[in-house]
Specification:
Radius of gyration: 14 Å
Order of helices and strands: HHHH
Low-confidence stretches: none
Mean pLDDT: 89
Shape: globular
Largest sheet: none
Strand content: under 5%
Length: about 70
């Protein structure tokens, strides 16, 4: 698909897009596991499935959550 998934959902069903956003916020909130670790787990899952854009997006989110770049 050439167009961003969430843009398409937003055009087709704005209420569904709100549900996605709210679920995402809830899932990545600090709790039993810190937000940064949850993001890194999601990144690993995307990487294992070959979802390149997801890995890029989650890597940026992890850095914003305080993850340091390690080599």
């Amino acid at each position: 698909m050439s167009e961003d998934f969430f843009k398409v959902i937003g055009k087709v069903d704005p209420k569904l897009l709100d549900v996605f956003r709210n679920t995402n916020e809830l899932a990545f909130t600090d709790g039993a596991l810190p937000r940064k670790l949850k993001i890194l787990i999601a990144l690993a899952l995307d990487a294992s499935r070959g979802v390149v854009e997801g890995v890029k997006t989650l890597a940026k989110a992890a850095m914003q959550a305080g993850q340091k770049e390690e080599r």
